[in-house]
Amino acid sequence: MALLLTLAGAACSRGSDKATPARSGARDSAAVAAAPSTSPPAAETAQNGDTTDDSDTPTLDTSAVTHIDAAPTESARAPSIERVGKLSPLADSIAATLVFELKTQRNFLAASRARRVLVDLGRVDAPLKTPQRQRAFQEAVKVLSPVHIGDRFRLHGSWGQDDAIVQSFDQWNGRIVGVLAATPHIDSLAKAKAPLVALAVRADSAMPPVVDSCVRDSVSTALTARLSMVKDSMLVQLQDDTVKMAPRLMKSLHAQKTQTIGCFGKARVLVLVAQWAGDYEYFHQLAVLVDTAGKLTPIRVNDLRFKVHEPLGALDADGDGVDDVALRGRAPRIGGTVILRLDPVKKRLDYMVGGFAWESF
Questions:
Q1: Taking the domains of the chain in order of start, what are their residue ranges?
Q2: pLDDT (tens digit per residue) in 269-279
């Protein structure tokens, strides 16, 4: 009996200890619930170990809180987007048909057209047959063009390098062009029969002219005879493709043998022989470099747009001392002018810049 009484007393003592915290927690919860709304949050109170109400705690100022509804007000403080100048109704309608090169582009194609030096800036798809529409075209180009009147270009051509300034805008065969004010020497080249093609690079400041020392007017008599034999043998090689050609294509088969003289490292002449039929459904082109001893070096032509090329002249477009080539390219219902850079190590011509493209539908 004494043992039972001892065990019962111990159990009652443990139950009393467990009940006391529970009742204390209940009283604390009730106090928190009864506290005013200005008291700190429960988590912050527990962290600081302070369960008393602090009357000095500032209340939350909701007027300083940025709500979602205030977003338009914040956006209004952002820098405004640059707006295009206001155009007349006719100029605005023509502006929708203008396509320019990228604003970040620095390399353009310059060429002689109608005894002037023009730089290709883009394409216009609107008819400009009346003086009124031409004036509206000028108005739209002046506002939208990434190249402005007074901008400077560095021309890299067969003569060397020199500066030119954009003096006005015009259109040529569906192209938006800038009319360049160049040196008298370049103007005289533009008025000659031989086509003038140059790489036009945007320049920030004036630079002195550079004279190209390469002589590109003639080669020896022995090399001339060698070139004639080379072109004939290349054409015979291309004619092997026509053995199984359809009669329809055979009726429209064309062949072309061309060359250009330059300073292509150790080579002196670039020879291009091409053959095509139909609307360029069949085409094959071969290119070789020929040195002064008559040795041939096959060259690969990398131009994804045009299939057949005709050389217009050699020029050192990149200033590395090795001539590059300006060519007239053709493909199905399109044509244009390109400058291809010669890589003598990889033995290929790579696309550099193009312009003055035309289409025929």
A1: 89-211, 221-359
A2: 999 999 999 99
